[in-house]
Structure formats: structure tokens, C-alpha cells
Amino acid sequence: FRVAGKTGTVCKYKPKDKHSPGGYMKDRYIVSFAGMMPAQDPAFVCIVVIDDPRTTKVGHGGGTVAAPTFQKIATRVASHLNLKPTEPVKPDTSNPLATAHR
Q: N or C end: fewer C-beta atoms under 10 angstroms in the chain?
């Protein structure tokens, strides 16, 4: 299916207290992936948010942690809703940002 989505990664905030000056923590995150499918006529929309994900071999961001979870959920939902496959998407190679990997 053609899926549309947006990843997100944010550093968690620690409030100021008597032991810490507070601020954004460099090793604690909230990551997300908001997706919909089929992209051209959405029948399913889902937001996956993970608080303090474990860092994997490929990182801790929304694209490496939350997006695969969305994929697992969306695969089961597509089967349950009996959604028909759409044409495969060919990447837009004219725009390097459209095909860039982080």
C-alpha cells in the first residue's frame, strides 16, 4: 500500500529542582510516527508514540522505532479491512530530499 506519514523525535524535558538545573535531556526521547493508508484515499489513520524507546542498532528516532510499529499495526488493519493493494510508489529522483535517508 502507498502509506503517507511523518516521523517525530523530541528530547524529553526535565524540570528544574534542587538537584538539577533542568532542561532538555540529551539521552531521553519521545518518538512518534503518524501515518495513514492508503495514502491517496485513507481508510486508516494511526499515531504511534513511544516514550523513552530503547536505542536500537540503527538509532532511537521515530523512523527507526515508531514507524516499524505502525507498519505492523497497518499490515493487520489492512487485512482486517480487506484493503486492496495499490500500485507501488516509485521514488521521485528529481528531488534529492524526497529520497534521502537519515
A: C
